[in-house]
Design a protein that fits this description.
81% helix; 208 residues; 10 helices; mainly alpha
Length: 208
Amino acid sequence: MAWDTERTKGLLLSAATTEFCTRGLAGARIDRIAAEAGVNKERIYQYFGNKNALFDAVIVTALTNLMDEVPIEGSGPEAMADYAGRLFDHHRVDATAPRLLFWEGLERGTDVVGLPKRMANCASKVNSTIAALPGISREDAGDLLITIVSLCDSAPVLPALDGLMAGDNPGRTERRRAAVVRTVHLMAAALAAEAAASEAATTEAATA
């Protein structure tokens, strides 16, 4: 019977995702990943090369899936606020991407993995943000997106700090979500207003 390569890769990626999310890159073990996947560890070296390359594949896969699962929809500050709310909700159910990104930052700093694919994904998000808020600069769009990511990604990975800062009263998660959405709406509205004012000033100067 022919070996199902894609199925094996999928099993290894799934097991590796759990291992890396829990223990990070340094703490992860190839033996545990192979055992969890029910696959000989030699397959990991055959398909991915080494543990670092496997981490690369895991994080690129997770972030690519996230791009598809939580798109930016609509226009105006409301669209960006809605995106932030849906991203918050996604991470509340599945904290894979936030955990991987925090481990990456702690262990690799600015050494970004899967650079071409991730650059393309980020550029696509920036373009979607500009489409939602016409007239804003790419830098402003990037600042807005990293603010959204920081707000949403921190919720599942900093639960103790959240509890210390704001308590753990019933409905705390919904209050946190509302605060994130409100913050993003305010920032997006301010950027849109600045862009509109700049465009108006440019038009006035051109017709003077």
